[in-house]
Amino acid sequence: MSNYLRKNKTSTKAAPRRRIWVATGVAGLTGVVGLAASGAATSAGAAGVDRLASLKWSTAEQVVKADGKRDDAAQGEKHDRGKGEDDRSGGDWSGGDWSGQSNGKDGREWRGKDDRRDDRKDDRRDDRKDGEDHAKEVPCDTETLVEVVNKAVRDDGGVFKLAKDCTYKFTEQTDQNAFPVIDEEIKILGNGAKLVHEGTELFRFFEVNSGGDLTLKDLTLSGGQVSGPPPAEGQGGALLVQEGGKAHLKKVTLVHNRATATGNGGNGGAIANFGYVTLEDSVAKDNHARSTGTGGNGGAIYNEGELKVHNSLLEKNTATTNAEGTGGTGGAIANFNDGIVTIAYSQIIKNLASNDGGGINSEDDTRLTVNRTKIAGNTAGGEGGGIYFDSSNAMRVEHAIIADNKAAEDGGGIWHDSDTSSTITGTKFYNNTAGRNGGGLFNDGDLTLADSEFKDNDARQGGAIFNNSGDLKIRHTKIIKNYASAPAGAGGIFRDGGTVELDDKTVVKKNEPTNCAGTVDGCFN
């Protein structure tokens, strides 16, 4: 990609090839539809957006409780069958290396002894690198903060250190931003401070234009709200990075930010990126993107540039649209129009999309890499409870945990279609559920699956894996104790088309009602 200079295509998201809005016969989903149908928020109608924050996750996650799911008694039988000394249903992924508070720091367990460093030394080193030694100290006064940043933008940039633990309250805006548009290098060392939106005016905190370079550290951005008329306004509730702009967020908390619109706007509840963004040691929680058309994508982050997420937590974010809309994708992250997303040592948990990609949605010639990351407890009203990937480019998933995700349609854990060979390596699929096909994985492209494990996944057909028309190679993988509710559904692998190739080190056993269906060489029932 050339220097991150990608044209802002105003989020003209193409309608997905498959779109069936499940509005009836699915318990709990009507509540989501009702929320999205109330329209985009304005300064007089922001209360409609607030209803998203009160969404009951236990209700929303019933989105897949359709005819594809058996009753509670059968569900209990499944878990009884699956338990034993090696039982991992809903257990291992939340313990061991993954244990700890939901603060985005769990990923440090991945580093290993040789790479673990004293956090305080890291902080001091980072502060020196960020320019703390010559940072201008800003008192706990909002007007002063805006003034010094405004002056720095006029005077070729600056470094600022905020008052420790101060809450800066913002009630006024200029062109939908609390601060002047950033087109120089600006560094804000938060020192534990909070930037909080108050009042009825709708605005984000920061916008970074081409040539701008914004660094935020040790800071909270709370309550940013943008809303816009059709076709494409209202993007990035807290931060908007335009093509050619850069933003680096470290130890930043993004909470209760919202982007709403009609048409194809309302993308990126917290961040909309068309340039280059890094998110490190950070938290994005309870952010919301909503629209009534093709927008409302990326509950936490909408990306059309390059996005890197490291050692961060994205939790309980929502992306919604109304019943007629084809947006509402990517509960945590939506990636479109040649965007590149790399995620490592992070957690993407309990996010909700009214359409595809409960955790992550990536399509339109995008690239996605997920490494040593937990994607768990996400819900999609369409396809891809954990990840929805539909691109001409490749997806890479390595050493991840895909657990307890739900999709009303296909691909409870991952829905995949790529024209380029994708890979899933060293990944564990536990307790994922699809209302139709592919409880763990739905494949419609060229995919190699290696050194992985499927257990306690559930669907009507292909409890673990459903191969629709792609070429799937499975190497050194365990597919054990998965369930399909259809009599000929195959708890292990259902091949509806394409090819499925197993090596002699792959184990497919103890799946119900059968291990495989649709002729899978090397699989025995």
From TrEMBL:
Disordered, as annotated region: 61-136
Domain of life the protein comes from: Bacteria
Biased segments, Basic and acidic residues type: 64-90, 105-136
InterPro entries to which the protein is assigned, alphabetical: Pectin_lyas_fold, Pectin_lyase_fold/virulence
Residues annotated as transmembrane: none
Gene3D superfamilies on file: Single-stranded right-handed beta-helix, Pectin lyase-like (2.160.20.10)
Xref: PANTHER family: G PROTEIN-COUPLED RECEPTOR-RELATED (PTHR11319), OUTER MEMBRANE PROTEIN PMPC-RELATED (PTHR11319:SF35)
Protein's recorded name: Right handed beta helix domain-containing protein
Organism: Micromonospora deserti
